[in-house]
Amino acid sequence: MADFPTRARAVVIGGGIVGCSTAYHLAREGWGDTVLVESGQLSSGSTWHAAGLVGQLRNNANITQLLGHSVEIYGRLEAETGQATGWKMNGGLRLACTPDRWTEVRRQATMARSFGLEMELLSASEALKLWPIMDASDVVGAAFLPTDGQANPTDITQALARGARGQGVKIFEDTHVTGIEVKDGRVGAVITGRGRIECEIVVNCAGQWANEIGRMAGVTVPLVSVQHQYLITEPIDGVPRDLPTLRDPDRLTYYKEEVGGLVMGGYEPNPIAWADDGIPDGFHFSLLDENWDHFEPMMEQALGRVPALQTAGIKQLVNGPESFTPDGNFILGEAPECVGFFVGAGFNAFGIAAGGGAGKALAEWIAGGQPPYDLWAVDIRRFGQPHGDIGWVRTRTMELYAKHYTIAWPSEEHASGRPLRCSPLYDRLKARGACFGEKLGWERPNWFAPDGVEPRDEYGFGRQNWFAPVGEEHRAVRERVGLFDQSSFAKFMVEGRDAETALSWICANNIDRPPGRLVYTQMLNANGGIECDLTVARLAADRFYITTGTGFATHDFAWIGANIPAGLDARLTDVSAANAVLSLMGPKARDVLAAVCDDDVTSEGFAFGAVREINIGGAPVTALRITYVGELGWELHMPVAHAADVYDRLMAAGAAHGIANTGYRAIETLRLEKGYRAWGADIGPDYTPLEAGLGWAVKLKSNVAFLGREALAGQTETGVDKLLAGFTIADSAVVLLGRETIYRNGERVGWLTSGGWGYTVAKNIGYGYVRNGAGIDRDYVMSGNYELEVATERVPCEVHMDPLYDPKMERIKA
Ligand SMILES: Cc1cc2nc3c(=O)[nH]c(=O)nc-3n(C[C@H](O)[C@H](O)[C@H](O)COP(=O)(O)OP(=O)(O)OC[C@H]3O[C@@H](n4cnc5c(N)ncnc54)[C@H](O)[C@@H]3O)c2cc1C
Q1: Which ligand 1 atom is nearest residue 348's CA?
Q2: Which of 19, 531, 536, 656 has the fewest beta carbons closer than 10 A?
Q3: Is this structure's pTM higher than 0.90?
Q4: What is the pLDDT of residues 585-596, one digit of tens each?
């Protein structure tokens, strides 16, 4: 005990692959003063029993890059540490056995190309040559990723631990964490069975125990344990040592070579949760009982694929619990509830594949004070209120587990745990045919089914069943008027003597306008990357009202809260639940609004960019003259209790003008035509306003200091190396979904960040960054000949740098 430290800069909790990778990379970042504590032995949690497949392709460029880092790390670790890792880069094969799956695989191949990852498409007979022991009679096609591989999870973990120790990290096994001290919202120390360690940073890499560790610091880590099984066979004739890994999603199974035999596992459609009441003490190097009944459907599928399994000897059926999350992605980053408390957990059965890169990203995040690149897809701030309920988390996680190998349909919604959070208009909209989607627990109308049509999505890779009804909604907004229920918007208040000073520092645009004005702005990080994209309405000299996207509630609140300079009198509160929002949009919006209130809503009396209190039938309504759909319109924010009455009044008054109920899918197509950027797709921390074509919304010409200013000023000197551009394809048989590859003069220069159909311009529309290392400007973008690769086919397209619809804003400012 004498050598047990009482102080460390960082304490990593958990000695699985993720904890060891984080400690190793922290040391590489110069944080050798790190202690790792593990309650059992290294790798004794979920890591030791992992099958060890290492695949890389995800539907997000940066997560694919992160997995690529794992491959790069695993490739050098043995030579670097002298510890064997079992790493083999034998490639990964993915089968497609239905036409839809083949479309998905071809779209994935294009996406891989977009992200710079090699992925070859193969015929069934070519796939058979790589995997000779399979029956390929039902295979339509296959994809091969030559840089995928497999590793021995325990050995990799030991190698990472050795590498960490070599750089000063102290590792203590048999050291159980029992508490975390938090003071003034910041971590202070970790309490273990061996003593207390004071520290600046705690990293929760406790796998399926991460929820329990999170609770010690008041942090929500939404994950649950689910049983996951795979089979290990005796050696099988014809299984070469360099057999690629195989994923056979139509049969829900995966395979890898092991000691001349096979490992075969899968994702059951009826998963079994584990440890609902807590993980038993001392669960180290432990497995659950074999469950052959549950595995049998997988086995039947596998026997069809690999006939040799019928006679192969079975060594073991491994049933190991692993942590899964409600959206199938892992959880990384600093918890919004507690400064200095980081999480790296919830790896959904790809923690071996992700461990190397995730530990690297997390360590760089900790050392650098911000993520090394946009990690929104896995950021802990993507969660919110519903995730505080572990029962809800379990329900949704089970659905996602069961969907692990199902086709990921465009626009797919999940069904479980719904409805959870409903706007006051939910029942009304449902009665009018709303087909709801879900975002952060909120039910939101995606589209409205016409009379006689069932409000239910029918998925496919072509135009889906909502395509025509959404077209009608789109036209209603362009030609008449539409009413959107956007009550799920996140809304914050910033109040106090110094509210303006605080927001002037955090916002890139000039928010120092008189009360009654409203500003669209980004909030930037120190590199000039876009952290938030929202509107700020000044209600009074010392009162600002912020509106941002539903899904960004936790993230944006945390960002603003963390960046209000210390000592200022500026209080941030979340008022999302207090206000409902109805957006009235379209050329007839003014007529409808005028009919329900006595306030002046003329162009002179209520100009674009103004915010006013108006009264609709006794309801105090904060009306914001702004639009995200490119038409004259107002966002009407009102106390929840008044929403139903205001809705009824607007619909009644709108009847004479052909008002329509309109939903989120219409918003998407309308904003694509207008070129409005979507955070999390077209813009985010990896892109600056200058790259995103949003320089006009930045107060660079003023003398006011703001976060990110220096980086942007630097960019105005050096120029940029990527620019967001629009692309159109008139052929309606093509379907753009985002992530299609952009070619300029035959060379790959980027990928689409969003894609869809514009009903008014009658074209496919995509946005994406055109990159050129030597620098880029508008002329460069406009001078190229462009093609988009869609599901491996190259299609000529037109390039645009201006909005496709109403570029002069005439309709909005009417
Ligand atoms: C059957 C099965 C097959 C799998 N196959 C693959 C695969 O082929 N490829 C792949 O990429 N992934 C696979 N996985 C997933 C992989 O095993 C996990 O994602 C990965 O091991 C997670 O690593 P971790 O470090 O997050 O968690 P763990 O390895 O569980 O590490 C967490 C550690 O925290 C420790 N801990 C918990 N509480 C405390 C405390 N209070 N104090 C101190 N320490 C504590 C635990 O003892 C544990 O060692 C598979 C999983 C299963 C179950």
Answers
A1: 19
A2: 656
A3: yes
A4: 999 999 999 999
